[in-house]
Design goal:
Layout lengths: L1 H16 L3 H14 L4 H13 L3 H14 L4 H13 L3 H18 L4 H27 L1 H20 L7 H29 L25 E3 L5 E3 H10 L16 E2 L1 H13 L7
Antiparallel strand pairs: 1-2, 1-3
Length: 279
């Protein structure tokens, strides 16, 4: 049965590479029926379901994979993607961090992609907090906007009592719509200026930026010469050249040490500045 499952999986892989994700999903499902204890078959089908944007069933596959093999990095990686697309940023962050830990433990080549997913989950978590914050402070803004919209609708209704031809009425409607929109935009700008949190300077400290990839650091490590880089960046760099990026002295992955103080500073900064992920 396991041999038949392998044949079906390989056929599914061919269809996946050709972009026929529905056929690939079907073949992976048949392979799972032949060998339901193989966690890799579930990650294969989860990958096809990601392409099909079938997030719920993708999540089911990932959870089954993890149940069979708690060390399976792909199970957590795909699970985080499904959770993000189902608007569960907290759970997605937890899954992405676990996937990242598995990458580092096994020196998996996907570390950079998983690190990027961790940052994306942190950004989505921050965005959810921002929406909640804005919602709690915007009751007055909504009431004023509703009042402006009500005034606009009254003006539009009053047009019928004016003796206007069709072109004049259309011109007047356009003027009322544009005038109302401008007032709402000015109102929103006034509220944004009045909110101190919107006056913060959006700038990331240089020491939080990886000097190789120029991205925000999620897991900073320090070299023997005292320079810090993101771990995923260094994994990729050391694959190409086992040297220090600055001094060109010999350097191995084992020589890197976690920069715990910088990591804490980055996490605290990102907690309140989720936009920094896109810096």
């Amino acid at each position: 049965m396991a041999h038949k499952a392998v044949v079906l999986k390989e056929e599914g892989n061919k269809h996946f590479q050709d972009g026929n994700f529905q056929k690939a999903e079907s073949l992976y499902s048949q392979a799972i029926q032949k060998d339901p204890s193989n966690p890799k078959l579930f990650t294969n089908r989860a990958m096809a379901r990601i392409k099909l944007q079938s997030w719920e069933t993708c999540m089911d596959d990932c959870l089954k994979c993890i149940e069979l093999d708690r060390g399976n990095m792909k199970g957590y990686y795909y699970l985080a993607q499904a959770q993000l697309n189902l608007n569960h940023p907290n759970e997605a962050l937890s899954s992405a961090l676990t996937a990242y830990e598995r990458c580092i433990e096994t020196r998996n080549s996907s570390a950079q992609a998983v690190s990027a997913l961790v940052l994306l989950a942190k950004k989505r978590k921050w965005e959810a907090k921002e929406r909640e914050r804005i919602s709690s402070r915007s009751q007055l803004l909504r009431e004023l906007e509703d009042s402006l919209i009500k005034n606009k609708n009254t003006e539009l209704q009053n047009l019928k009592f004016k003796m206007l031809d069709l072109s004049e009425e259309a011109e007047e409607k356009t003027y009322i719509e544009l005038s109302s929109r401008k007032k709402i935009e000015e109102l929103r700008s006034t509220f944004a200026i009045a909110d101190p949190s919107n006056m913060q300077q959006r700038e990331v400290p240089d020491y939080m930026i990886d000097s190789i990839s120029f991205t925000f650091m999620h897991d900073p490590v320090i070299t023997r010469t005292g320079n810090s880089y993101d771990r995923s960046t260094m994994i990729e760099h050391l694959k190409r050249s086992e040297t220090d990026p600055l001094t060109r002295d010999p350097l191995r992955l084992e020589d890197l040490r976690p920069n715990l103080a910088l990591k804490q500073a980055c996490e605290e900064f990102l907690e309140n500045n989720g936009w920094a992920v896109d810096w």
